[in-house]
Amino acid sequence: MSKLTLEQKLFHDKLDVEAGRANLSRYFLIPNCNQILTCFKDIWSQDAGISTFVYATWSGRIAYHMSKSWYVQAAATEVNNTIFFQNGWNWNTNTASGAAGIGEIAYQRGFDQTAYPSTYEFLGYYNSSAKTTSERVTTSSGSSWKAAQHTGGMSGIFFSGQQYIWRKDHGTTRNPHSMALGIYGGAGTDFQSYAPIKAEAYLGAFVQAPFKSHPLDTYGIQLHWTKLGPLQTRFLADANKASGGDGRPPSAAHLVADIHARVSLLPNVALEPSVQYAINPNTYYAPMTAKHPHDIVEVGATLFIYLDKIMGFPP
């Protein structure tokens, strides 16, 4: 279960109120990349505490549309790191670590308004969850580990945007599936030194419908830079030392360059392949190791089968 909410629109649909089980990535920092494997935001997930798109938590949101393009919205959601090990039907909050509050101002124009759509979002967040970090201390009998809890929560800001800049038809139509070029990007920072991710930025470009016979295909490139927080960098060095390594700290910043695509194989079946080259990777997800990772090439793909459309469900 990824979404189950009650929604009410008021004042000629200018005001939108919604509450229930949902993921705030449906409404905030809307993915502006053209490929799911490369469209990640580490600050959003690791610092703000918003779970992966398909997982739902208790949430509430209110949005007000000042015009057809401009709107403001705010929301609150449960932060629960154990949601990844559940199936969507466990609705209690016993394992929640806190709550996150988000507010943003945004601008969006689609193909219904212009031949050159654009989306821009600027938001701030606060995650009340206490952040626990592991710190190494030296005792008379050697080294040991203790958990240090920072109760101040985490807060930060993030900006993202997407803009179509060129069309083969020079904007004479609003066809969303004609050949066009778009650019996108984003950047953010967390204000606390104990945050896992201190700063992040990405920039990319994509071309859609380069082949007339495949109007739904897109091809793109992207650079994604991430910087770890100072306590997280120190922890990875200490964990490496405790595991028998040399204790050398990893580079706080790492860069991922990639090329990717979305290719329609059959009606309602699509493949999203990507090739990524990671520079200065770290052991964030596997800290207890004596090894230091090297630059690496990663190849991946996601297969999409739209069962709802195949079975004729209404949109």
Automatic annotation (TrEMBL):
What GO MF annotations does this protein's record show? porin activity
Gene Ontology cellular-component annotations:
membrane
UniProt xrefs under Pfam families: OprB
Q: Which Gene Ontology terms describe the biological processes this protein takes part in?
A: carbohydrate transport
Q: Which family does it belong to?
A: Belongs to the OprB family.
Entry protein name: Uncharacterized protein
